[in-house]
C-alpha cells in the first residue's frame, strides 16, 4: 500500500520512537486525528506543500494547529517538512496507522452502505470480519454509497467482501443471460 519507500521508512521510525517511549497509543490517536484533518480538507496539504510559504511559517503552523499533539508527533512533522517530504505526509500517515494497528492486532476497514450504520452494527461487522482476516478488531470507516441499493461491502486491505444487492443483481443477470 506504500506509495514510496521513504514513506515507509518515516512511518517505521515514528512507530519505533513511539514504541520505545511507550506512547504508541497516544501517538496513534494524534496521527489518526491528523489523518482526519487532512481527509476533511485538502487546503492544509496545499498550504504545507506550497513553496511560496517559508518553512519557518509552516513549522509555526504545526505548533498552532497541532498544539495538543504529542511532542514526538510535532517533531516528526517538522523533520518531514525539513527533509522536503511533506508531500508524502498522507502516505506516511497511512503506513504508520497500518504498523500501529498490526501491532495491536487490529486493521483498518472501510464499510460501504446505503445509510449510516449504528455503533452496534459497526461493532458486529468488526467482530465478524476481524475473525475472517485474522485480527482482533477492525477500525471501521463507514462510507455512504446509495448506488449499492442495499447490503454492505467491506474492504479490509486488499480483501473485499461484497454482499450488496447491486452485486447480487448483477450476478443474477449474468446467470440468466449466460
TrEMBL record:
Q: Which InterPro entries match?
A: ATP_synth_OSCP/delta_N_sf, ATPase_OSCP/d_CS, ATPase_OSCP/dsu
Which membrane topology describes this protein? Peripheral membrane protein
Question: What Gene Ontology cellular-component terms does the record carry?
Answer: plasma membrane; proton-transporting ATP synthase complex
Establish whether keyword Nucleotide-binding is in the entry: no
Pfam families (alphabetical): OSCP
Q: Which residues form a coiled coil?
A: none
UniProt keyword Coiled coil, yes or no: no
| Annotated GO MF terms | proton-transporting ATP synthase activity, rotational mechanism
Q: Where in the cell is it found?
A: Cell membrane; Membrane
Keywords from the named record? ATP synthesis, Cell membrane, CF(1), Hydrogen ion transport, Ion transport, Membrane, Transport
Q: Which family does it belong to?
A: Belongs to the ATPase delta chain family.
Reported function:
F(1)F(0) ATP synthase produces ATP from ADP in the presence of a proton or sodium gradient. F-type ATPases consist of two structural domains, F(1) containing the extramembraneous catalytic core and F(0) containing the membrane proton channel, linked together by a central stalk and a peripheral stalk. During catalysis, ATP synthesis in the catalytic domain of F(1) is coupled via a rotary mechanism of the central stalk subunits to proton translocation.
Protein name as it appears in the record: ATP synthase subunit delta
The organism is Candidatus Kurthia intestinigallinarum
